[in-house]
Write a structure and sequence with these properties.
By secondary structure, this protein is of the alpha+beta class. Among the domains are: 28-226 and 361-398, Sandwich (Jelly Rolls); 414-481, no CATH class. It is 25% helix and 26% strand. The chain contains eight helices and 25 strands. The strands form six sheets. Strands 2, 5, 7, 8, 9, 10, 11, 15 and 24 form a nine-stranded antiparallel β-sheet that branches. Strands 1, 3, 4, 6, 12, 13, 14 and 25 form an eight-stranded antiparallel β-sheet that branches. Strand 13 (194-199) and strand 14 (202-208) form a beta hairpin. Helix 5 (425-441) packs antiparallel against helix 6 (450-462) and helix 6 runs antiparallel to helix 7. The longest helix is centred in the C-terminal third of the chain and has 29 residues, at 392-420. It is extended. The N and C termini lie far apart (105 Å). Keywords: Calcium, Chaperone, Disulfide bond, Endoplasmic reticulum, Glycoprotein, Lectin, Membrane, Metal-binding, Repeat, Signal, Transmembrane, Transmembrane helix.
Length: 537
């Protein structure tokens, strides 16, 4: 009897322990911060009052849902908004999960959709003056413009030797999904110095915060650096090749011969209309009634293609075509020979790095606020379900209950819309090919070639008439790189030349300040409107 009671007592105790552990897995204490935006952000989040940030934030429903989020409502604007957390969140111990949803409802050609996890205000910033200079600990999320297509993970860390804060960028980050569905981005920092990036619950990247190959620049500086005071000796010759001093220009070398000459054998085609211009005034055009010659200038009818030229070999003055000149040789230069005085490439001597330090683990500053500070050319970016947690299971629970139901509905709706719009089999295949190419571009061993690959993919997406040719060239580039890596050893990465494609004008994220980009976009839009009005007249 005593043994039986003892056994029952042990069983009850074990059951209680299991219950407590199961409850601990979803402990509310593990949820440090959660923002669902079901209530208006006004009065809870602080919009920056800086002059540069004129973008209008809205509390809005996600398209096709009853779920609310924080909406970027205008294009070509700067946005800044911040939420101070109740208690600073330490990143030094245990696991920390940073997670949020974004939906690019109008797509994303050029702009950011990332979040900054800010340091305490003692670092020198104020919520109402939040801007791009406000100090953060971690910046995480999508960014896309021109050839830039990445999910950033950047952390700022203080160098204990000189006190400077340095940005450390994750190398080879994953690409941003190219659709208009809701996606959830998760960054998990673990006590073993590991960071894991997930998109929609699928692991896309894993890195070690202390490993030099994973971050640029590395968290741990180099032990030695080139001596900044070392100077190359004046007699140091680093030219491997020199012009042959004994070479003489051949007597028959004509430097003045042109590259092209007229084709003397060419004959003017029969029926050529010498007296007809290629363009004529549009006979149906009339001067607008409100046209003022003094203000608008002398009115001229718009030009149109001369219909007579359409049935003739050509119009206007006929000229013989040009052809390559077989006598052309260009400017003569002596051939290069090995330099007998060549000493090799000069390098400064190495000295101990005064800023070198060692760490067992990163010394992160705590998170005291959550900020969204972006510039974008597209409206319709929706932020939702921002989570900071100390337990990966908590973040997974939010993905399963908050994100996944919306995503499944959006996928079904997208598929139905494609079928209703008559997208054929080839269009469906093309979409899958693009998604596959974006995933291929994320493969680490292709990292040095990622900008060129993404540039090809973007051109194919924007110009349907060139899609097949660009896709073939993209696949050819990837295969060439793959074969070179297998059979070419560790040679330097070749430069891949791409021919410029006309018509498409891309916006680069590294040309000009945010304010300059906005001003340029507004000027371009105004100029385009003026041209449209002229055509209509």
């Amino acid at each position: 009897m005593m043994m039986g009671r003892f056994a029952l007592l042990l069983l009850a105790f074990a059951s209680l322990q299991l219950f407590c552990v199961a409850d601990d897995d979803n402990n509310d204490d593990d949820v440090v911060f959660y923002e669902s935006f079901e209530e208006s952000f006004e009065g809870r989040w602080i919009v920056s009052n800086k002059d540069d940030y004129k973008g209008l934030w809205k509390h809005s429903k996600s398209k096709g849902h009853e779920d609310y989020g924080l909406l970027v409502s205008e294009k070509a604007r700067n946005y800044a908004i911040v939420k101070v957390v109740d208690e600073p969140v330490s990143l030094k111990d245990g696991t920390t999960v940073l997670q949020f949803e974004t939906r690019l409802q109008s797509g994303l050609e050029c702009g950011g959709a990332y979040i900054k996890f800010l340091r305490p205000q003692e670092a020198g910033w104020k919520p109402e003056e939040f801007d791009n200079e406000s100090p953060y600990s971690i910046m995480f999320g999508p960014d896309k413009c021109g050839t830039t297509n990445k999910v950033h993970f950047i952390f700022k860390h203080k160098n204990p030797k000189n006190g400077e804060y340095v940005e450390h960028h994750l190398k080879y980050p994953p690409s941003v999904p190219s659709d208009k569905l809701t996606h959830v981005y998760t960054a998990t920092l673990k006590r073993d110095k590991e960071v894991k990036i997930m998109i929609d619950g699928e692991e896309k990247k894993k890195a070690n915060l202390l490993v030099a190959e994973d971050f640029d620049p590395p968290l741990i500086p180099a032990k030695t650096i080139p001596d900044p005071d070392d100077r190359k000796p004046e007699d140091w010759d680093d030219k491997e090749k020199i012009p042959d001093p004994n070479a003489v220009k051949p007597d028959d070398w004509d430097e003045d011969a042109p590259m092209e000459i007229e084709d003397e054998e060419a004959v003017k085609p029969e029926g050529w209309l010498d007296d007809e211009p290629e363009e004529i005034d549009d006979p149906e055009a009339t001067k607008p009634e409100d046209w003022d010659d003094e203000e608008d200038g002398v009115w001229e009818p718009p030009k149109m293609y001369n219909p007579k030229c359409a049935i003739a070999p050509g119009c206007g003055e006929w000229k013989r075509p040009m052809k390559s000149n077989s006598a052309y040789k260009g400017k003569w230069s002596p051939p290069l020979i090995d330099n007998p005085n060549y000493k090799g490439v000069w390098k400064a001597r190495e000295i101990p790095n005064p800023n070198y330090f060692e760490l067992d683990k990163p010394d992160f500053e705590p998170i005291a606020a959550i900020g969204i500070e972006i510039w974008t050319m597209q409206e319709g970016i929706l932020f939702d379900n921002i989570v900071i947690a100390k337990n990966e299971k908590v973040a997974k629970s939010y993905r399963e209950t908050k994100w996944k139901p919306k995503f499944e509905i959006e996928k079904e709706r997208q598929q139905a819309e494609e079928e209703a719009s008559g997208l054929d089999f080839l269009e469906s295949i093309k979409r899958k090919v693009f998604n596959a190419l974006y995933q291929i571009a994320d493969i680490p061993f292709l990292s040095n070639y990622k900008p060129q690959i993404l540039d090809h993919i973007k051109k194919a997406e924007k110009q349907p008439n060139l899609t097949m040719g660009v896709l073939v060239s993209t696949v050819a580039i990837i295969l060439t790189i793959f074969l070179k890596l297998i059979f070419g050893g560790k040679n330097q990465c070749p430069r891949i030349e791409t021919k410029p494609v006309p018509v498409v004008a891309e916006t680069s994220d590294d040309q000009g300040s945010d304010g300059e980009k906005v001003e340029k976009a507004e000027k371009n839009e105004a100029a385009a409107a003026a041209r449209r009005r002229r055509r209509e007249t």
